Amino acid sequence: MTYAWGTERRFNAYSDHFKKQFGERVQKITLDVGFTCPNRDGTCGTGGCTFCNNKAFNPSYNDPGKSIADQIRQGMEFHRKRYRKASQYLAYFQAYSNTYAELEKLQDLYEQALDIPGIVGIVVGTRPDCVDEEKLDYFKELSGKCYVVVEYGIESVLNRTLQRVNRGHDVEKTLWAVRETARRGIHVGGHMIIGLPGETRNDFLESARELSTWPLNNIKFHQLQIIHQTAMAQEFREQPWDFVSFTMEEYLQLMMEIIEQLNPSFVVERVAGEVTPGMGVQEGWGVRYDVVLRTFEELLSQHDTWQGKYYKTDK
Ligand code: SF4
What we know:
Elements: H1 14-22, E1 26-31, H2 68-82, E2 88-93, H3 103-114, E3 119-126, H4 133-143, E4 147-155, H5 159-164, H6 171-183, E5 187-194, H7 201-211, E6 218-223, H8 231-238, H9 248-261, E7 267-270, H10 289-302
Helix pairs in contact: 7-9, 9-10
The structure holds iron/sulfur cluster.
């Protein structure tokens, strides 16, 4: 069976989307260019989000002390060894809030990356309160020349959760940023965490239904992974009953139900996350992401289900 997104896979997979868009596999190269975040430097908070420790996600070739060109060159080298097929790359400004500077400085950084042969676009990870009309107008203009995704940390669509994790903005701000970005024809990505404290299975499913009404293009889901030396690690020690701990099987079962609710037009970039080994407070699943993904697709097949099976447009 061919699904609404034009393939036989049971969800609208990112790798297929890129093959359609670019004619081949495209690999992201993550960058850390030394940004900070207004939730850390005192502008809207100091402690940061309680789950945040960016070191847990950065690959070894990321070092803000290195130039963009060096990080990209080393990233290309790293990926060429793992995935020989990629010859086109996206520069992924990932660490912290990558629109948190004057526009002129941002333009210089993004354009340094775009000048490197093989880089066909940029993905810019940021907070919804770190964009404004001027920056979005710039991204609109840039989108006319290359592939651009602005990826927002949504994390939760519940204000009580955003408050609890010290996010420093509310869901109304997130929706504003997503809408303003989409309105300009810029690709909009979102990142969600499944399992933040106080959220229940019903909340996860209701959140998928709510998100499905937003004008997103891409979505990433990560299970909550509590990282050492974060405020959440302390909270977990004090109130473990407020946290859901998933086995891989339990999580994928839940993810299947989330995907069933999800807007079929959303490209799903990830269904689970991976932190650097040894950084998590709880024991990890001990399997690589390709195994997680294969297991997930087998589960969809066993249940004869797919992305958007229960998606309703009337919300
Ligand atoms: S998760 Fe993002 S927004 Fe929150 S403190 Fe970390 S860098 Fe800042």
